[in-house]
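Chain X:
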Amino acid sequence: MTLLPRPTRVRTRASYGCAVAPGRTVSATGYLEGESPSASCITVDSPRLREVVRYADGKRSLISYDSGTSIRVAGVLVVRLSGRVVEGRGEGLAAHRTVPALPGQLPTECLLSGLTGSTGEALLEIGA
């Protein structure tokens, strides 16, 4: 990503610990892919992203994200995606994914060649 907004491909993998009932958690993995037609080092606008979440108990959820907001706080870009579970566990429920994205490069790279990736702990909420 650069300072000027442009179409950007997004891909990421995540590991989750999911509360499926009081006192019962299940591990899960997620794979998110899609694009933002107007992303920069400062913002991610109008994302069209899908995430497949596979739970350790064999079930899965397909989430479609259609809106996002972002804010930069002390050099960290906090991205919140909103959408809906379109298939599988939680079908029809709202889904929100929040990630404080830490760039793997110095922020000044945004002005030069651009940032190529980031890392962060994702929080996924379904039905909240």
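Chain Y:
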Amino acid sequence: MYPDHTPQRAVEVHQPTPIPPPAVHSAPVVPVQPGTVPTVASIVLPDGRVVTGYAIDPARPEPVTTKLAVSRVAVNVALGGVGFLAVCGGLLLLTSFIAALTAFIGQLITLAAVIFGGWIAVQVLGPSGHKGGTTVNIRRAVFKRNHFHS
């Protein structure tokens, strides 16, 4: 069962302990006669066989409890109130959305004005003259396009 190099181990076998059945004290069975003897019915099938049995009363459904009548006016008032609240909530959400959208557009316009105004300020206040070419200042001398200016 085990390979040669594997030490063998002792195997313990546990047997289940049977559980004794609980003591049942049953009451003696007393046959009870029905209050009335049911009638026996016989039916002749089309092939000539006769089937005999007890007639069973059909199961009757429980009587339906009558529901309290709800006024149509009360239902209409309740539905109208729910509809009114839904419309008010929708208008509130719409108003909030329009206000947020207006603020967002205002912020976009302000951002565009700041960026455009900054660009204009750089153009106006930037260094004037000396358009084009590279200017290098070395010891109070200015070299521009390979021409010396003192």
